[in-house]
Amino acid sequence: MTARRNSDNARGSNKTTYSTLSIIIGALFGALLGMGVWIIATYSSSHRVQPDIASVPPCADVSTAIQPQVTTKPTASVKPNQQPSQSKSTAGAASSQLIGPVPTPKRSLVICVDPGHPSEVSSGKTVQNGLQEVVINWNVAAYLIQNLQASGYSVICTKTHCEETVTNKRRAEIANQNGASLLIRLHCDTGSGSGYTLYYPDRQGKKNEKVGPSALVIKSSYVAADAIHRGMTAAMKGDLKDNGVKGDSATKIGGRQGALTGAIYSDVPAVTVEMVFLSNRADADFIRAETGQQRMASALAAGIAQ
Ligand SMILES: [Zn+2]
Are residues 35 and 162 in the same domain? Predict the structure, then answer.
């Protein structure tokens, strides 16, 4: 009996020890859990990834710049993509320099300027180094249009405002319908590289049963890309890395389709300019500045004049 009692006492004592241990372990576990939750909450609040949209530069107000001029060879089907705007706003980065008499066209060449995005492929609104591609494309396009108009070109634009979504097929159709001599498509690259690259359709591609562009457009697109490249290189004076002229087939979409969609549907020479790599800090800083956007536009204009 004594032995059993002792044994019972020992069991009872063990039970007490176990329950005490359970409480201590439970308390420790609870404390650790609480600490973990606190650490995660603190970390995520201080490291939350949220694009600071307020600091992203807005689209320039360039309504005056993008009024289409009447093309020199209008056809019945010509429908310029813009309606003349009555806006005389002076707000925005570029507008103040764009107001004034529109020069009389001295040349018969029609240039179709295509600020890339938003399209069926992408909005172009991803924030990289504080910039959105759609905005940079638009702002440089505004300066380019201003430059080209000052040189006497007739200019049409594929978009009426920065946010307007236009399919890549439609962009080419606007150039075709206005009898453009050149469709110049402005984009910004992303990835590990830096600098500017010019692309032209180096072979036919296929998109939704449409095969194109023609052999003549392939040849003339190369001639245009090569000329624009030479003019740009001279104007940029090495301030951005020069990646040269490449075929559309070297791009991700062009590699899959044979050519970029805008080129497949184009009946006129089509050149896509990836102006900078927005993912590259130095490139982004260059193009963030109004002076950088203006330099890019005048480099493009110098290239087009070649
Ligand atoms: Zn783009």
Answer: no
